[in-house]
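Help wanted!
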Amino acid sequence: MHTENISWRCPSNIAIVKYWGKKENQIPCNPSLSMTLSKSFTEVNLALSEKKSDEEIELEYFFEHRKNEAFESRIKKYLSAQKHHFSFLNKAAIRIDSSNSFPHSAGIASSASAFGAIALALFDAEKSADKHSPEFLQNVSSLARLGSGSACRSMFGAYAEWGKHPNIPNSSDFFAIPIHDVHENFQQMHDAILIVDETTKKVSSSEGHSLMNGHPFAENRFIQANERTLRLVKILQTGDFEEFIHIAESEALTLHAMMMTSANYYILMKPATLSIIEKVISFRNNKQIPVCFTLDAGPNVHLLYPETSRESVEDFIKNELIADYKNVIWDKIGTGPEKVN
Ligand code: PMV
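Answered by r_m:
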């Protein structure tokens, strides 16, 4: 058997309506909606060669040229649970080489782009999968979800929704769907990721999700996220920036409020996070320029703005926020995954 190499590049995404809280099998407690990025991505090469051992899954995993035992055993478990989907898994020796476009220490969650790229390579390697069928990306999205919930949204360009919603046709808890007919106001969005802290987070997102079980505000939070997801779909189609800002910022603060009010409470924001948030709000109020912040499960701040306000927002970031961040990743809306030749 010759070594077969399959490479995919999968972008990260930033949630506007946040997924926070999950049930068994990575089923989300509420729907979420994200923007797919372009410059923050993971590239994965899957190499299949002749199997040398009788191990159930013969896998070696390298992250940026170094063997990564911790991730290797996580991926082994993940592959073992998916054996029935992929006939080659117990016939070939598998080597995965993964690398990120952004520095490892940037404090950016890479599991969405990593699991997205792995799921794409796996389905691509499966000869029986019809890569041109409409179900292909849906199946990949579903598999990516099992590795990291938010990964399922990275399969589609621009904006993607994940989670069953009675008023969003075709929505599902198992895979994400693309948002169609996006208004031109939201088609050229930028995301400047201001890195304020590069250390790895002290509470994993799995732990964070589990703290929503029995959380005193969980029920209302899930109702709110349902309403906001539907509203955001409409906002993206009508182009209302003011409403978009309101949902994006409130979602970021609500996510962190959930962390701060859970039984084992914790705070991920840093003083610089708050400093940036305050400056962004007063810049917007004073200049009447559309720009807003959002947060992931960490202290770094994502600033979202349309192409039309790019120059003034980027000057503001470089001149007035410089003392608050260590580094900036100038990212923007993207078109989704790509096969690498
Ligand atoms: O995909 P996970 O399990 O790492 O969870 C991601 C959760 C948030 O990034 C905080 C929100 C989201 O919807 O992406």
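OP: Thanks! One thing I noticed: The first strand starts at residue 4 and ends at 17.
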